[in-house]
């Protein structure tokens, strides 16, 4: 994570490798045991998990870097160990707290428990600052200040002021704050899928998916870029980390794109846009989708199913831009690309765990058990064929890395729980909803623009999952007021929350890609934003069409919605880029942009007419020159 992001590779461990590795491995084994046995109640399991995470955070992320003077660094390490020891003590104290004795609700917490609660919030905010960045901690502090001092604000923004006892009881000694739904999802479901992603990498399965992508798309025009999109779609969903995925797949794809002829900022932008899209791609969809299932109370299988069509449309959008870019640059495909059959023959067994977890999730099995089954399946798959065996040390490394990769996620989710708790404790969510409705003028498109802007601003300093949690508790009620179903509203906010990775001025996935490509970070962010415009267009179609299948929808409305979204993507992209099959003059470009706007009209007659007009323009342009059609593209 320690760019300010939920998404990060495990940190370098310095001089405490064995100690940290042992603690991380123990955390993974504890999580596996709890997932299988489920013998611990939430008031015991969650404090234990969080204290374990805090211990690792303070050991992995030192107070001062090793570039600091030796005496300062050593003093900082002593402080880190003190923080870790206090975190362990707090976890023990909370896990043994007697919730059956309700006297603490009437008489207040004892002095030791009150101090333990205050210390936990302070240490959590510091751990979040070290792993995610100061913005997340700052937002939590602002919300806590509002909870305590809300009675001093003007009437339009005022709330009851809560004292320290009430704050600590609500946020620490209940399931409404730190130990609320975000941390429960992170400690349970998200952990096992992060572990699955770590094992995928150490067993060689991740490389297999990259090889498959190159075998499928490598020989076509702009092959490495298209392979990057396909590989990121496969791996990004499982890793749940746009930045980690950009670094992992980008290390291979970005140099190949540059070698083929893409500009450095284009290569970085393509990889960032594709990797960010992985987080909206079933079957896993990153951490946020599991939080969404908890917030909506809907089965994860239902979220997975309705997300398939929009995710495919997003990657179609990205592939289209990549193709148009390759055409404008006059690029060709790669030589000496392996055949798909050869690659699949070598690693087909790695597909079985993915098929298994997809089927089990659709059958509504417990996501925790599905994730654990997937972890076991990927290890079994690796050892099922002699040529893909890996040393036992690699499996241990995967178990260790899974624990280290969860640190920023759990810290951010626990801190986001404070924000969610304050919204519920003070009622500020209702005030935000009323303000949003007033500012939008009562128009859905106005509210959509305001929410999109809020998502971009929040995303400048928050990880994607944290941005979704904060924004959903505030914005979803407003979208519900416009008549949107709960799932539709949550998916719109979820998609808009992804934009922070690719939207200037702070686009972390694009910046990570720029580092690999040796490109300008800001130019890379601009390219990524253009390639990922589906993050804005497709949620708009979710709001204004039947793009998300509902029980009362007809097949006709659903099909028209998909076709209209495809038409919107093609018309807008080709109009902006000035190319369909050939270079376009200003008139046809203007017509394409008008057609794109007409796709937003909900009337099926208007949409079908616009699709017909798009088809006529395509036929007219295709007759001028068939060279592109006849080439490998």
UniProtKB/TrEMBL annotation:
<feature type="transmembrane region" description="Helical">
    <location>
        <begin position="104"/>
        <end position="125"/>
    </location>
</feature>
<keyword id="KW-1133">Transmembrane helix</keyword>
<keyword id="KW-0813">Transport</keyword>
<feature type="transmembrane region" description="Helical">
    <location>
        <begin position="179"/>
        <end position="200"/>
    </location>
</feature>
<keyword id="KW-0472">Membrane</keyword>
<feature type="transmembrane region" description="Helical">
    <location>
        <begin position="350"/>
        <end position="383"/>
    </location>
</feature>
<keyword id="KW-0997">Cell inner membrane</keyword>
<feature type="transmembrane region" description="Helical">
    <location>
        <begin position="40"/>
        <end position="60"/>
    </location>
</feature>
<keyword id="KW-1003">Cell membrane</keyword>
<comment type="function">
    <text>Part of the tripartite ATP-independent periplasmic (TRAP) transport system.</text>
</comment>
<keyword id="KW-0812">Transmembrane</keyword>
<feature type="transmembrane region" description="Helical">
    <location>
        <begin position="303"/>
        <end position="324"/>
    </location>
</feature>
<feature type="transmembrane region" description="Helical">
    <location>
        <begin position="555"/>
        <end position="573"/>
    </location>
</feature>
<feature type="transmembrane region" description="Helical">
    <location>
        <begin position="72"/>
        <end position="92"/>
    </location>
</feature>
<feature type="transmembrane region" description="Helical">
    <location>
        <begin position="16"/>
        <end position="34"/>
    </location>
</feature>
<dbReference type="InterPro" id="IPR010656">
    <property type="entry name" value="DctM"/>
</dbReference>
<feature type="transmembrane region" description="Helical">
    <location>
        <begin position="132"/>
        <end position="149"/>
    </location>
</feature>
<dbReference type="InterPro" id="IPR011853">
    <property type="entry name" value="TRAP_DctM-Dct_fused"/>
</dbReference>
<feature type="domain" description="TRAP C4-dicarboxylate transport system permease DctM subunit">
    <location>
        <begin position="121"/>
        <end position="543"/>
    </location>
</feature>
<feature type="transmembrane region" description="Helical">
    <location>
        <begin position="478"/>
        <end position="496"/>
    </location>
</feature>
<feature type="transmembrane region" description="Helical">
    <location>
        <begin position="531"/>
        <end position="549"/>
    </location>
</feature>
<feature type="transmembrane region" description="Helical">
    <location>
        <begin position="502"/>
        <end position="519"/>
    </location>
</feature>
<feature type="transmembrane region" description="Helical">
    <location>
        <begin position="404"/>
        <end position="423"/>
    </location>
</feature>
<dbReference type="Pfam" id="PF06808">
    <property type="entry name" value="DctM"/>
</dbReference>
<protein>
    <submittedName>
        <fullName>Transporter</fullName>
    </submittedName>
</protein>
<feature type="transmembrane region" description="Helical">
    <location>
        <begin position="443"/>
        <end position="471"/>
    </location>
</feature>
């Amino acid at each position: 994570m320690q760019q300010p992001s939920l998404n990060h590779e495990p940190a370098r461990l310095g001089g405490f490798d064995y100690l940290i590795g042992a603690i991380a491995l123990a955390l993974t084994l504890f999580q596996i045991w709890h997932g299988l046995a489920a013998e611990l109640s939430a008031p015991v399991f969650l404090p234990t998990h969080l204290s374990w995470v805090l211990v690792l955070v303070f050991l992995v992320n030192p107070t001062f870097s090793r570039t600091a003077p030796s005496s300062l660094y050593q003093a900082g390490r002593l402080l880190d160990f003190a923080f870790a020891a206090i975190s362990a003590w707090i976890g023990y104290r909370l896990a043994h707290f007697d919730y059956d004795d309700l006297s603490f609700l009437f008489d207040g917490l004892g002095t030791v428990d009150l101090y333990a609660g205050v210390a936990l919030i302070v240490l959590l905010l510091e751990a979040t600052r070290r792993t995610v960045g100061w913005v997340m901690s700052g937002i939590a502090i602002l919300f806590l200040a509002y909870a305590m001092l809300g009675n001093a604000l003007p009437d339009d923004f005022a709330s009851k002021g809560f004292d320290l006892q009430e704050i600590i009881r609500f946020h620490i000694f209940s399931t409404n704050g730190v130990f609320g739904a975000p941390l429960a999802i992170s400690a349970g479901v998200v952990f096992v899928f992060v572990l699955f992603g770590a094992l995928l990498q150490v067993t060689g399965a991740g490389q297999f998916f990259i090889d498959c992508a190159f075998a499928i798309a490598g020989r076509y025009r702009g092959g490495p870029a298209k392979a990057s999109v396909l590989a990121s779609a496969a791996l990004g969903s499982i890793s749940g980390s746009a930045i980690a995925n950009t670094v992992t797949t980008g290390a291979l794809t970005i140099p190949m794109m540059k070698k083929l002829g893409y500009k450095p900022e284009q290569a970085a932008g393509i990889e960032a846009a594709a990797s960010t899209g992985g987080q909206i791609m079933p079957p896993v969809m990153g951490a946020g989708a599991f939080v969404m299932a908890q917030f909506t109370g809907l089965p994860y299988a239902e979220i997975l199913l309705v997300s398939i069509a929009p995710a495919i449309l997003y990657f179609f959008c990205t592939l289209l831009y990549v193709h148009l870019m390759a055409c404008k640059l006059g690029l060709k495909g790669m030589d000496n690309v392996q055949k798909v059959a050869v690659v699949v023959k070598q690693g087909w067994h790695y597909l079985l765990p993915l098929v298994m977890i997809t089927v089990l999730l659709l059958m509504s099995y417990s996501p925790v058990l599905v994730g654990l089954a997937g972890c076991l399946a990927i290890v079994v798959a690796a050892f099922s064929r002699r040529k893909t065996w890996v040393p036992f040390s690699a499996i241990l490394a995967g178990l260790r890395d899974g624990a280290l990769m969860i640190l920023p996620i759990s810290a951010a989710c626990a801190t986001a729980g404070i924000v969610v708790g304050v919204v519920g404790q003070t009622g500020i969510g209702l005030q935000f909803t009323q303000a949003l409705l007033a500012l939008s003028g009562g128009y859905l498109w106005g509210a959509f623009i305001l929410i999109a802007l809020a998502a971009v601003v929040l995303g400048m300093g928050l990880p994607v999952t944290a941005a979704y949690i904060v924004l959903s508790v505030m914005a979803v009620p407003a979208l519900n007021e416009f008549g949107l179903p709960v799932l539709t509203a949550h998916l719109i906010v979820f998609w808009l929350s992804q934009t922070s990775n690719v939207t200037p001025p702070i686009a972390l996935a694009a910046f990570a890609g720029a580092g690999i490509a040796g490109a300008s970070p800001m130019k890379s962010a601009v390219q990524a934003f253009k390639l990922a415009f589906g993050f804005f267009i497709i949620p708009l179609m979710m709001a204004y069409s039947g793009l998300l299948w509902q029980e009362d929808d007809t097949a006709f409305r659903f099909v028209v919605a998909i076709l209209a979204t495809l038409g919107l993507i093609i018309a807008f992209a080709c109009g902006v880029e000035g190319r369909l099959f050939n270079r376009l003059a200003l008139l046809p470009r203007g017509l394409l942009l008008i057609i794109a706007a007409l796709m937003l009209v909900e009337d099926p007659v208007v949409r079908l007419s616009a699709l017909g007009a798009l088809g006529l323009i395509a036929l007219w342009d295709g007759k001028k020159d068939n060279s592109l059609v006849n080439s490998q593209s």
